[in-house]
Amino acid sequence: MKPGKDKRRKAAAIRYEAEQHAAPRLVAKGAGLLAERIIETARENGVYIHEDADLVAVLSRLDVDTEIPEELYRAVAEILAFVYGLNQRMAG
User: Fold this and answer.
1) Which stretches of the chain are assigned E, i.e. beta strand?
2) Which residue in 15, 27, 51, 82 has the fewest CB atoms around it within 10 Å?
3) pLDDT tens for residues 9-49?
4) Three-class DSSP category at 66
5) Does the model's pTM come out above 0.85?
6) Domains along the sequence of the chain with CATH
């Protein structure tokens, strides 16, 4: 393990409400036990969980309740498109 390298599990949660915000927002973030709780809460509520350590690392630098920066739009849009497609298939 490299010095200073944190191996604890990390999680970040985003929400997109187009009618209220121009971009998705970071609604939760954490490491260790807090990350486990974020993941557990998502599972309990049927929220899709996407594992991407690089994206979580970038999102973790943001303050909670902050819109994601424009440079992350593409990565987040791909995830949201996948989730919307899943929701449509499950509803139909």
Assistant:
1) 10-15, 25-31, 66-67
2) 51
3) 999 999 989 899 999 999 999 999 999 999 999 999 998 89
4) strand
5) no
6) 10-91 (3.40.1690.10)
